[in-house]
Task: inverse folding
């Protein structure tokens, strides 16, 4: 609803949404909201591209590695690094085998004067984990059918879009 509200405030009447991961779930939800209730007819989302996520409720098991990574960061990496960025990169390399996870975490570090900080709010993500995993819509509700084009892109090694999700996705 925040996305629809922002588009209304900017007087944008027609849009193509593109979203990756949590952004993909957000645009799928916004597209459904644009077709229902007081939002119907105010916004024409004429198509969507959703990357590397399915608009479904995920269990914590689905995001086990992500949640473990965030828990690790919260417990082991402080916003003021004693030995700067290299120390944190060494800790990341020691604890994570997956090269993609290591690169993501290392690219999420920023240096500000004498501090090394994360680009994202780890505590906020951990506190919002239930809302992030949730999908608030009932697929059996006929009024929530999306009839416009959607391109669903899946990374070759991604576990976030499964064949079992396709009946719900459409």
Result:
């Amino acid at each position: 609803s925040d996305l629809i509200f922002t588009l209304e405030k900017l007087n944008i009447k027609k849009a193509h949404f593109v979203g990756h991961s949590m952004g993909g779930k957000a645009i799928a939800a916004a597209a459904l909201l644009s077709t229902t209730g007081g939002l119907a007819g105010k916004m024409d989302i004429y198509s969507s591209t959703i990357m590397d996520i399915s608009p479904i409720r995920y269990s914590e098991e689905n995001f086990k590695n992500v949640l473990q990574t965030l828990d690790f960061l919260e417990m082991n990496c402080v916003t003021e690094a004693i030995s700067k960025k290299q120390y944190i990169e060494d800790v990341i390399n020691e604890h994570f085998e997956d090269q993609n996870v290591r690169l993501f975490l290392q690219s999420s570090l920023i240096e500000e004067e004498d501090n090394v900080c994360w680009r994202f709010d780890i505590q906020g993500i951990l506190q919002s984990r239930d809302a992030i995993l949730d999908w608030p819509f009932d697929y059996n509700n006929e009024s929530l059918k999306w009839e416009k084009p959607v391109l669903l892109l899946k990374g070759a090694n991604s576990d976030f879009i499964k064949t079992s999700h396709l009946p719900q996705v459409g």
